[in-house]
Amino acid sequence: MTVQLSRRNILKSTALAAAGFIPAAAAIAQTTKIPSQWDETTDIIIVGSGFAGLSAAVGASNTGAKVIVLEKMPTIGGNSVINAGDMCAVGTPQQAAKNVKDSPELLAQDMLRNGLFLNDPKKVKFVAEHANDNYKWLVDEIGVEFMPVVGFTGGHSVPRAVTTTAGSGSGIIMPLAAYLKKKGIEPRTRNYVERIYRDDNGRVVGLCVREGYRFGKEGSGRPKNIQATKAVLLAHGGFGADVKYRSLLDPKLTEIFKTTNQPGATSEMWKEAARIGGMMIQSDWIQCTPWNNPLEKGMGYTWNFGQYVAGEAGIWVNTEGKRFVNENANRKVRADAILVEQGKGLKAVAVANKAATASLEGRRPGFMDKALKDNLIKQYDSLDALAADWKMPADTLKASIAQLNGYFKDGKDPQFGRIVKDLKPMEEGPWYAMEMSPKVHHCMGGLATTIDGKVLDVSTLEPIPGLYAAGEATGGTHGAVRMGTNAILDCLVMGRAAGTAAATQG
Amino acid sequence: MTVQLSRRNILKSTALAAAGFIPAAAAIAQTTKIPSQWDETTDIIIVGSGFAGLSAAVGASNTGAKVIVLEKMPTIGGNSVINAGDMCAVGTPQQAAKNVKDSPELLAQDMLRNGLFLNDPKKVKFVAEHANDNYKWLVDEIGVEFMPVVGFTGGHSVPRAVTTTAGSGSGIIMPLAAYLKKKGIEPRTRNYVERIYRDDNGRVVGLCVREGYRFGKEGSGRPKNIQATKAVLLAHGGFGADVKYRSLLDPKLTEIFKTTNQPGATSEMWKEAARIGGMMIQSDWIQCTPWNNPLEKGMGYTWNFGQYVAGEAGIWVNTEGKRFVNENANRKVRADAILVEQGKGLKAVAVANKAATASLEGRRPGFMDKALKDNLIKQYDSLDALAADWKMPADTLKASIAQLNGYFKDGKDPQFGRIVKDLKPMEEGPWYAMEMSPKVHHCMGGLATTIDGKVLDVSTLEPIPGLYAAGEATGGTHGAVRMGTNAILDCLVMGRAAGTAAATQG
């Protein structure tokens, strides 16, 4: 017997259904009765129009599958389109031009080391091994344009960051969208997923969507049931902007933390995927950026100064004028270090001179002029003036810079272990300074998936038939700490693989 | 419309049910049809007979509720009964006798600091505030006997560990079981929970149990449906012995790691609680002990030497003869440090002289004699003999001990920050040594619950009516790192509170 159907309950339900009554049960039931009739039918439905969603759409549609892409917000691209556009790649012409020796194995090592070995080693290997062909695919097939320079981002052991000429993730999102448009696929904005339909055999068979949904207005839009004959693919991103959900997983991340995320980075799909039995792993690993400017809303743009100017060729000090961390450590190490300084009542300040801005200006021309004009970075003729303005002891600041300059000359940082090869000592002004304060940025954990994106069931630990996922909605690639520039790589590589698998394996 | 009942499906199900057919769907459906008839009815069903389960049974039954306690293994007590019996308590006579100044606030600070502030601050406060009355309750009402001494355990800032005279957790489990027996409650062993019934209104209403179940023999035992008119309370413990489940959450913890846990510490109830919509948080935080003896199976008993002799009054060295960690840091810090040494091809060795054993012998008389006789700890007349046997340089070992002796005299350890007050320098032999190697020990994460033990739903983040949980099955009290001795405290305090709430609020 084990589990019995209760005939009385079924008959009762039937009577209620006949009377047109929708029981409250529907809101909590972990499976949902599938519609008797579908409003629309397609092969693959993709939820989300960021890096993962659009590359999944390319992968799926290239097999000949019929694909629908849904986006709950009024515009496409989610966090991806406001992303910095810096992508990790291995074996690029940009690395070759700077004689950078790199390999998939070295990238995989960096990912595991920074991820505290909490990563799924199979995913790490897969992503690292595609860090070269992913770059080529973007350039050759999608038509993405990258700058000729390479950047050095926190946690990586060599420079690997290639940057879109657009200077943001839109430089990838827009070409992907144009590529899909030629194939007749246009993401449907304002389409909110209200229900994932998982049938009595455990298969995901479609979605209930609200068309014309207005974000933040519950119940808005017209309900529509769309059937997916092959698969539903979840690429809904993270929940960094959802204070209630994130603080349930990490109680530190209350509303006092701002976020770099767009307002739609909320948890609805996390809850819905969990409701139908999607297994979540490592969701408590929520990354804060170290280097955001508290004067800006959201991600802003002057974080580039913290990372690529002061972090790569300058110095980070607290308002006692002292270095307190490896300026190019991984994000967790640096964000935690800043929180410790803030806990002492101090501020974290990125400091550099004009010469240190050269590398960034090569990638983002006009950056410094704009930031100074916007009053987001401040300029000083002397370190004395800078120190006075930030109420820090000038002598200590000068001593910290002199010490770091010595490390630049030696090519070794015995204080914090920063990689300081080929860096010029900071001697002449003008000097620049900007405060940095952590913001909630990236969800490392998420749905447990196989290499080809199949979502595991909480109960059986086996794939849920018809359900795939990729990108920030999933866990395992990054472990405890995602390295900067690895989000785009992960989303594109795993997204394309999952889209292809969803269309061919269903 | 949002979600529609499909009349055709319902009629089909009805026809199948009438024909006595149990659909395969039952195995994966996230809700389960409740039985048309129950085999037994009670107020509260408690799953698990460890510290949390039995204290919940006391809490519930003291309100007058009818309680059933289920245990899948042939004997009661799970990991609790093989636990060390060292419990965190504040304001005890044992602390007073040693003039230890302590407070709930100090305990809460220690828990948050070691937990990396990933803990739920409300749970921390609740547990810390009951660390005194919990001790009194055990002594005065349950009849537990504690030794007159107090121990100093890793991560705590003052000595707080009181130890049962039985020298293990059985010194608490047996009196709790005797207390319950007087009230007519005896845990039912070999009762495996196959299904949690959650009805169409979202309420948990009972369980399908296999009576006479034999652990490891799937499908054994006779199915029985038990109704809980008030609540089901989950106190099923952790999954430390379940390699597949734990390595899905933390891929490092493969079969190469042994475990201190009893064989029944597996994931069946984790999967079943998740299947019906129980929200899991922080399950990837799985603690390894630092100090287990690799010569012993499971927990063994000689870890006491690593913690309470060498950790409290001796030294930990690697096989280069060098100290490598604060011997009384929290478990994660020490376990990770040992793994680093092992990664270099070295071993971690606990070393102490006879004088250092005094405190432990006060609590576990005869311990050293037994361990030496069992060949689990080795004795040497001189440090030269010890060093030779462990293939470590004697000079380095002697220098490390001399340096630490200096710290003991100064009352300060500038090398690793260990608290070294009131410790005698190690001068005379005989000397003892034992290897230590991490084993999987405790699951910090688990079901998200309110202070009174209500389990949250993954979809609504609100309590699931009729479902409670406590103990290692839950997350939030310990955050990233559980301090030694805090498991008993957490399980008893939260178990009793949840049992009381389940019986009075239902």
UniProtKB/TrEMBL annotation, chains A, B:
Keywords: FAD, Flavoprotein, Oxidoreductase, Signal. Belongs to the FAD-dependent oxidoreductase 2 family. FRD/SDH subfamily. The keyword Signal applies. Pfam families: FAD_binding_2. Residues 43-487 form the FAD-dependent oxidoreductase 2 FAD-binding domain. Residues 1-29 form the signal peptide. Its cofactor is FAD. It comes from the Bacteria. Gene3D superfamilies: FAD/NAD(P)-binding domain, Succinate dehydrogenase/fumarate reductase flavoprotein, catalytic domain. This is Flavocytochrome c. PROSITE patterns: TAT. InterPro entries: FAD-dep_OxRdtase_2_FAD-bd, FAD-oxidoreductase_2, FAD/NAD-bd_sf, Flavocytochrome_c, Succ_DH/fumarate_Rdtase_cat_sf, TAT_signal. GO terms for molecular function: FMN binding; oxidoreductase activity.
